[in-house]
Design a protein that fits this description.
The complex is a heterodimer of chains A (about 300) and B (about 250).
Chain A lengths: L1 E4 L4 E4 H18 L4 H10 L4 H25 L5 H28 L2 H33 L18 E4 L4 E4 L1 H17 L4 H11 L4 H27 L4 H24 L2 H24 L6 E5 L4
Antiparallel strand pairs in A: 1-2, 3-4
Helix pairs in contact in A: 1-9, 2-3, 3-8, 3-9, 4-6, 4-8, 5-10, 6-7, 6-8, 7-8
Chain B lengths: L1 H14 L5 E7 L3 E4 L6 E11 L9 E8 L2 E12 L2 E14 L2 E5 L3 H4 L2 H7 L3 H4 L2 E2 L9 H13 L3 E5 L3 E3 L3 E8 L6 E11 L2 E14 L1 H12 L1 H27 L1
Parallel strand pairs in B: 2-13, 7-9
Antiparallel strand pairs in B: 1-3, 3-11, 4-7, 4-12, 5-6, 6-8, 10-11, 12-13
The chains are: A mainly alpha (about 300), B alpha+beta (about 250).
């Protein structure tokens, strides 16, 4: 059954979209990631114009983070002041990212930059996760000493200190603002939530306790991706509600199955699997940049040289 | 149906006075609505050659039918290897290229039509896509225009079907077009050329209106003209479905 997407102006198979949403939802439920980093490249692949794919991806991230945030609030695992600081940075970053996105679209280099971002960030994060998961596995086998979490870096000597009770931190607002800003830029350019960058940054850079990290990052992601969606809709008219709805419906169902499946599997093995998946996506996109493409030419609507 | 059409065409051919040979034509439909379940459409263009005197002219009679979607500017970019990776470098902008272009003819184009008239009327696909925007700084634009044609042909947007027009008894003709699912909204220009002895002796022009209808139209207009409202709608939808999904699954589990 075909469905015509009013904004993307393409006709796509309904079940393909539901399946795509379901697959990404399954993975996000399984690994606890937003799945934006998978859905946007997959949309490129099935022929959705990049601008629409990125904007609609952001809308899908809103839906998938809502239920997560609600659950985390119930567990009191959201550090709201920290979330707001990250959010302020994120909104600024998102606005900046949208400006860069439109500029790069006009220059014809948006595909390249999006791909490069994916290769660099996914590659780096994937390798780090893989290494970390291997180390934890070895440690649990040997029963070695716990690593020191709180490190006093130059970061902690900056001005504008603020108390974050839920995280048990008294630090400057500048590092979280910067983290939020970078994540916001990436969210706008790559159509991702940015959890895969924010979570490690919150743990290793800001020194937040793990129990509030997921909830707080979801809180920030929810609002930043909502802002990004609105900005894309208002400046480019590139959010396709019909496409988003199909992905969301598939995604929420997939996520429920994924989280139940995830509960049965070993956490460390899951992390290694996720790391391998992330590395795979990065390698695939990287090869596309390195190998000679079958078609050297590509068409872009509009007359901007 | 066919018999009725024949009768109708013959009646028309007899009823109206004419100079030489003229086209009398019709379309199976003059408007197409793009609904949510739209997955392509078929168009039948049919007609007859109307003449007063019996067809005594020399040379073969041929018919060429074209169907052309709304034009828009297209930028064609070429990748080349820079510092080890493939990057878009050169680009060429074509001021107006039809979003869809199909030709059906009763014989091979190069045999049935004089090339000069082809150029004048811009019938063949490469000729229909020719308007460049601004000065062209490139010495050779051919690889770019060829790429445009090649890519659009692969996507099924540009089609040339020689022999797809059938002529019966040198009088009746019909051409079938299959419009793809990824159709752009706009007015689709239909042209019919009557060719005898490689020269165009008559032409007929009409339009097919392709419009989004129903929900598709509503969403598109909302997105274009009321963007902030549309943004709120998409966010509300996302928030609601995220919340509803969690609630439903909680109910199922308990």
């Amino acid at each position: 059954m075909q469905i015509y997407l009013p904004i993307a102006e393409v006709s796509v198979n309904l079940f393909l979209l539901l399946g795509l949403g379901g697959l990404v939802g399954l993975l996000s439920g399984l690994f606890g990631v937003g799945g934006g980093f998978l859905i946007t490249p997959l949309l490129f692949f099935i022929g959705i114009p990049p601008a629409v794919a990125v904007a609609t991806g952001a809308n899908q991230v809103v839906a998938s983070s809502v239920s997560g945030v609600l659950a985390q609030f119930k567990r009191k695992a959201v550090d709201v002041p920290m979330g707001i600081v990250l959010l302020v940075g994120g909104v600024g970053g998102s606005a900046l990212g949208i400006w860069v996105f439109n500029l790069l679209t006009a220059l014809g280099q948006i595909d390249l930059v999006v791909q490069l971002c994916y290769v660099v960030f996914l590659g780096a994060i994937g390798l780090l996760m893989f290494q970390e998961a291997l180390r934890t596995m070895r440690r649990t086998k040997k029963g070695g000493a716990r690593r020191k979490r709180h490190q006093h870096l130059w970061l902690h000597n900056l001005p504008l200190k603020m108390k974050f009770r839920a995280s048990g931190l008294y630090i400057s607002v500048i590092p979280p603002l910067l983290v939020g800003l970078i994540v916001g830029v990436l969210a706008a350019i790559m159509g991702v939530g940015g959890g895969f960058i924010m979570v490690p940054a919150m743990i290793y850079l800001l020194g937040m306790p793990t129990k509030v990290v997921i909830g707080t990052s979801l809180f920030q992601i929810l609002f930043v991706s909502a802002f990004t969606t609105a900005m894309h809709a208002i400046t480019n008219q590139s959010v396709d509600v019909m496409l988003a709805l199909m992905l969301i419906v598939g995604g929420v169902i997939g996520a429920q199955f994924g989280s139940r499946l995830g509960a049965r599997l070993n956490a460390e093995q899951l992390r290694i699997l996720l790391a391998l998946l992330v590395i795979l996506v990065a390698v695939k996109l990287g090869l596309e940049l390195l190998l000679r493409p079958d078609e050297l030419f590509s068409l872009f609507p509009g007359g901007i040289g | 149906m066919t018999r009725l059409l024949t009768l109708f065409a013959l009646l028309l051919a007899c009823a109206l006075p004419a100079r030489g040979e003229e086209i009398v034509a019709g379309l199976s439909r003059d408007s197409i609505g793009i609904t949510a379940s739209f997955d392509g459409s078929e168009i039948l263009i049919y007609g007859a050659v109307k003449r007063n005197a019996p067809a005594a002219q020399t040379g073969e009679l041929h018919v060429i039918v074209t169907l052309e979607g709304p034009s828009s500017a297209v930028t064609i970019r070429r990748k080349s290897r820079e510092m080890g990776i493939w990057v878009n470098t050169d680009s060429l902008t074509v001021g107006a290229a039809p979003s869809y272009y199909a030709i059906a003819s009763s014989g091979p184009m190069h045999l049935i039509l004089d090339p000069v008239e082809d150029v004048q009327q811009r019938i063949s696909i490469p000729l229909a896509v020719r308007a460049f925007a601004g000065p062209v700084q490139m010495s050779d634009v051919r690889p770019f225009t060829q790429a445009l044609l090649r890519i659009r042909e692969e996507e099924g947007l540009y089609k040339e079907e020689e022999g797809a027009v059938r002529i019966v008894e040198d009088t009746l003709f019909r051409a079938d077009f299959e419009l793809p699912a990824n159709l752009i909204e706009g007015d689709y220009k239909t042209r019919i050329f009557l060719v005898r002895d490689s020269h165009i002796i008559d032409r007929y022009q009409s339009a097919i209106y392709v419009r989004r209808v129903g929900l598709e139209r509503w969403l598109y207009v909302l997105a274009q003209d009321y963007a902030p409202l549309y943004a709120l709608l998409s966010l509300a939808l996302a928030v609601f479905s995220g919340w509803a999904a969690a609630a439903v699954f909680r109910l199922i589990r308990s």
